[in-house]
């Protein structure tokens, strides 16, 4: 069983750990680094449009999906993308939005969780982490 282990990070100003991890978004002309929340309550991965621009990902000309997260609803441009999580490359459908209400993107269940047999959040560790097992 292959395991991708990602340590949580503490968001500045918060007294607790959140499953915030660093990923890369790969495109035709480059890559973009992005901090994301591994969010079991989110349907789709939601990233800022700037990540798509930096990586050279071609987006639909017009928004093609409405996405709701964190109490807000916004228009998004959904397209396929390749991301790198730990050492694993994942091809999935991502919703890119103009403005995120959070200082991080979201990794949702559809496309991410479904590529693993088990997703485990280990909270009571010296270094909290999430393990993605295939």
Task: Give the gist of this structure.
By secondary structure, this protein is mostly beta strands. It has one helix spanning 49-55; strands at 3-7, 9-10, 17-18, 20-26, 31-38, 46-48, 65-69, 72-85, 88-97, 105-107, 118-122, 129-133. The strands form three sheets. Strands 4, 5, 6, 7, 8, 9 and 10 form a seven-stranded mixed sheet that branches. A three-stranded antiparallel sheet has the order 1-12-11, with no helix packed on it. A two-stranded antiparallel ribbon has the order 2-3.
Provide an overview of this structure.
The structure is a single chain. The protein has 134 residues and is mainly β. It has a single domain (20-115), classed as Beta Barrel (Cathepsin D, subunit A, domain 1). Helix content is 5%, strand content 51%. It contains 1 helix and 12 strands; from the N terminus they run ββββββαββββββ. The chain has one helix spanning 49-55, and strands spanning 3-7, 9-10, 17-18, 20-26, 31-38, 46-48, 65-69, 72-85, 88-97, 105-107, 118-122, 129-133. The strands form 3 sheets. Strands 4, 5, 6, 7, 8, 9 and 10 form a 7-stranded mixed β-sheet that branches.
Name the features:
134 residues, mainly beta, Cathepsin D, subunit A, domain 1, three-stranded antiparallel β-sheet, 1 helix, 51% strand, globular
Topology, please?
Layout: E1 3-7, E2 9-10, E3 17-18, E4 20-26, E5 31-38, E6 46-48, H1 49-55, E7 65-69, E8 72-85, E9 88-97, E10 105-107, E11 118-122, E12 129-133
Parallel strand pairs: 5-10, 6-9
Antiparallel strand pairs: 1-12, 2-3, 4-5, 4-8, 7-8, 8-9, 11-12
